[in-house]
Amino acid sequence: MSIKYHFFGKDCIIDRPLSNRFDLKKMLLEKNFQSQKVLFVNQIHSSEVFVVDSLEKIYGDQNLPKADALVTNLKNIVIGVVTADCAPILLFDEEKNIISAIHAGWRGAKSGVILSTVDEIKKLGAQNIQAVIGPMIQQKSYQVSQEFLDDFLIEDLTNKNFFKEGTSSDKYQFDLPSYVEKKLCEAGVEKIKNLKIDTYENGKDFFSFRRSTHLGEKDCGRNVSVIEIN
Is the pTM of this model over 0.90? Predict the structure, then answer.
């Protein structure tokens, strides 16, 4: 068996229902995924993890479980998350054939979704866990307020290392990718690949909620990150 993953952007336009979109099925087929149906969750910026341990847990889009990560060791099931600036994180153990997909915005990362997911993947027997951080907003594109910074300093004073001065005295630029890497390291993940692709700057290939907001667009679309054991 092998593990396959991919980060889709504007090359795969999706809408509801997520798992049944023709474009997504077509792209999965082109990328040689064994299954053309993806199991998503109803993402709520939480630390909740959904463990897929039975085919009976493959729900329709109307009954998606509320969570921000999925974990499974089942073959030929594609699991995925949707993002528009938040971090898509794919975890896998190639020896044990266990995979996970995580949606980690600042709220989810701060509230423990990464640690919770690593705990669940370890319960299934994962030992040599690798992580890939997909396209997401990078520090130079992510300006935040003083209040935002203060909230992170309450968690840990060393979090100041993830901020640098912004365009005005009361603004800062937040390094969410490095913060996510820190959380992965704290959870015991040593092999981390960060693609360092900025969704905000790369408007040709990826959707960005913040960019669309700044441009006055009603909706920005979603990037899709998927992984499968095949």
Answer: yes
